[in-house]
Amino acid sequence: MIDVAVSTDTPLRDYGGILGVVEFGGQSRNPDLTAGYPTVGIAMREQREQPVREVWTSASEVTSGARDGIVYGHDGTHLFGTFRLPGAEAYREATRSVYRRTMTLLHDLGYPHLVRMWNHIADINHTNAGGLEVYRDFCQGRAEGLEEAGTDMSAGLPAATGIGSRGDGVVVYFIAERSGAPLHFENPRQVPAHRYPREYGPRSPSFARATLLPSSEKLFLSGTASIIGHRSTHVGDLDGQCDTTLENIRLLLASVSEKTGGKVEMDSFTMLKAYVRHESDVPHVRRRLREEVGPLVPLELFNVDICRSELLLEIEGVLTMKFSDEVRGGGS
Ligand SMILES: C=C(O[C@@H]1C=C(C(=O)O)C=C[C@H]1O)C(=O)O
Questions:
Q1: What secondary structure letter does DSSP report for 86?
Q2: Which atom of ligand 1 is the closest one to the Cα of 316?
Q3: Which CATH class is domain 2-328?
Q4: Does ligand 1 have an atom closer than 6 angstroms to the CB of 244?
Q5: For residue 205, which atom of ligand 1 is closest to its CA?
C-alpha cells in the first residue's frame, strides 16, 4: 500500500519503507540515492523558509536504483521516480528524450502504468529564444516523448501538475503502477487538456484531470485552475478564480463518485497543495481553502508561477475515496 505525507518536522526515520522524498525548499537539486532512497530538491520556497518534505512510503520492502538519469524506488506494486533537466534555452528535445526513456524504464521494470506526474518548470511563462513560451516548449517535448513510447493520449494519460518553480531547469517526479488498475477521469465542464485547441501551443498538455488507484482508494487530483471549457475565466479576479477552481473540483469529485459508486468530497483530502502566483494573495487563498476543507486537512501553499500567465492560483491534492463493501465486491 502506497502512502504520502507532507511535513516540515517528522524525522524520516519515523516513516516505514520510503519510496521517495521530495524536498520543497530553496534550491532545485539533482535526484540522488545518498540516503538509500530517491531524494530530489525543488526550489519552491524562499531560502529562509523551512523546507517542506513530501514523503512517499510503502508498507512493503522497497528497492531503489538509477538508470538513464532517472532515480527510482519501487515495492513490487508501485514505483516512485524522479529526474531533473538542467536549465536550458529550450526543453523540447531533452523533455522528449527523458519522457521516452522514462516510459522504457517503466516498461523494463514492470511498472508500465503512469498514475501521477508532477512537472516543476522554472521560468514557465518566459518566452525562449525560439519565441515559444517555456511551458509550451515543454508540452511539445512531453507529448512527443509519450507518443513515441506508444501512449494512448485519450485513455492512458495520468493525472499531472505542470507548474512553475523558483529554481532553474525542470524537475519531474512521478508514481507508476504494475497491474494496470489506475482509472483516469476527465472533468465534465473542462475540455480534456490533450484536446485543447492549437491557440495554447503546438502540442497540448498531456494529462487527465484525476486518477484513481483502487488498491489504495486514493484519488489523485491534477492541478486544477479557473478554466471552463478550454478558456481561463475571471482574469484578474482572485475570488472569481477561487470560486471557479473549487467548483471545478466539486464537479470532478461528483463525477468520479457517480462513475465509481464511491464517495469522495471536499473534506476527503489527505494532502492539499495550492500554488499562488502573487505572494500577497497567499493568505487569502489559504483562508478560502480552509473554509472549504475544514481545519484538519494538511495544506501547503507555494508562491510560484502557473502554466497560463492569467491564472492566479491552482489547486491539487490526494483524496481518500470510500467504497461500500457492495461496490468493492463488484456489486455481488
Ligand atoms: C491548470 C492546468 O494545467 C496545469 C498543467 C498541467 C500539465 O501540463 O501537466 C497539469 C495540470 C495543471 O497543473 C489546466 O490546463 O487546467
A1: P
A2: 13
A3: alpha beta
A4: no
A5: 8
- Which residue reads 523533455 in cell numbers? 95
193 lines ligand 1 (CB under 6 A): yes
Angle at 265 between CA 257 and CA 254, to 5 degrees: 35
- Domains of the chain by residue range: 2-328
ipTM above 0.85, yes or no: yes
Confirm or reject: Cβ of 305 under 6 Å from ligand 1: no
9-19 b/e (C-beta count within 10 Å ≥ 16 → b): eeeeeebebbb
| pTM to 2 decimal places | 0.97
pLDDT given for residue 8 in this prediction: 79
193 C-alpha to ligand 1 centroid (Å):
8
Read off the pLDDT of residues 86-145 as tens digits, 9 standing for 90 and up.
999 999 999 999 999 999 999 999 999 999 999 999 999 999 999 999 999 999 999 999
DSSP 209-265: SEEEEGGGTEEEEEEE-SEEBTEE-STT-HHHHHHHHHHHHHHHHHHHHHHHS-B--
Q: Is 314 a catalytic site residue?
A: yes
Phi, psi angles (nearest 5°) of residue 58: -140, 150
Only one residue has cell 500567465, namely 309
Question: What are the φ and ψ backbone dihedral angles of 187, each rounded to 5 degrees?
Answer: -95, 130
User: pLDDT of 292-320, one tens digit each?
Assistant: 999 999 999 999 999 999 999 999 999 99
Q: Is the CB of 43 under 6 A from ligand 1?
A: no
Nearest-atom number in ligand 1 for the CA of 117 is 9
Position 134, amino acid: V
Cβ burial 185-206 (10 Å sphere, 16+ → b, else e): bbbeebbbbbebeeebbebbbb
For residue 306, give the DSSP letter.
B
